[in-house]
Amino acid sequence: MTRAWTLKSRPNGMPVTTDFELIDVASAALKDGEVRIANRWLSVDPYMRGRMNDVKSYVPPFALGEPMQGGAIGEVVESKAEGIAVGDMVQHMLGWRDEAVLPGASVQKLPDLGVPPQQFLGLLGMPGMTAYFGLLRVAEAKAGDVVFVSAAAGAVGSTVVQVAKASGMTVIGSAGGAEKCALVKSLGADAVIDYKSDGPLVKKLMAALGEIGKDGIDVYFDNVGGEHLDAALATGNLHARFAICGMIDIYNSAKPTELRYLARLIGMRIRMTGLLVSDHMGHAAEFYRVMGGWLTEGKLHNSETVFDGLEATPEAFLGLFTGGNTGKMLVKV
Prior knowledge:
Elements: E1 2-7, E2 20-25, E3 34-43, H1 48-51, E4 72-79, E5 89-92, E6 99-103, E7 108-109, H2 126-138, E8 146-149, H3 155-166, E9 170-175, H4 178-186, E10 191-194, H5 201-211, E11 217-222, H6 226-235, E12 236-244, H7 264-267, E13 271-274, H8 284-296, E14 304-308, H9 313-319, E15 328-332
Parallel strand pairs: 8-9, 8-11, 9-10, 11-12, 12-13, 14-15
Antiparallel strand pairs: 1-2, 3-4, 3-6, 3-15, 4-5, 5-7
């Protein structure tokens, strides 16, 4: 028997631990072309909250009572797939469980970049790709730009800060609390906003711009939405580009977002573009080449928060919405 987490009930607002159930699943015999993987690392990510709602979206909702899914790194323990051997470390999307059986075509062997395997769920995985492609391809950020990043201590945001600095940009990061702000500063951000401190966020962003001698932002990388997005609209320069990656501020709330500065989109000709990393996977080789080079040169720092054991997966997931992670949130199986 293997074990897997299922969605027992659909959350109303913020999920709670009773919305999840750990079940036993009979181990399946391998068919030709399949592999059996002992999962070593699991990823939990904010986008998974949307999959808990029974609504049509870019990815199907989780089915009640069925094993949940998510990014995972594991070791192949049995293989009937050509080109994949026992002992290979691979990445796949059947997380939230301790063992996965799936077609060999649905797994990717980890590139040999000489880094710990879990980094392919963070800095060198989906969050890193989201940061890299969102900043450089979607927002078309370039050297000399002023970049504002929300959730700058998170898995995606912390990578955006580093990619921007490695590319010659000026960066303002927003994070919650002194410890996370210090981390963002250590990653190279030119100014940092503590969004949890008193006062309107737009005034904090204007003060940060004054601190670095700039009048406005050229690029906004949005992981939060809400007041952060409004502050970015208030300070966007002419032809500013916004990459809209996530809006964690509203995932557990039905309260509508109020954007007082939305009309500035018109006069400043601000461009806002939604970001899905899957649209850019054809450029993965470029990502590994460039990010691998920066990592070797010491331009990138990996930050992660680790929960131990499959049993801790829901707790790790819920921590994403309460500021419980610095960098990538991971579960070590």
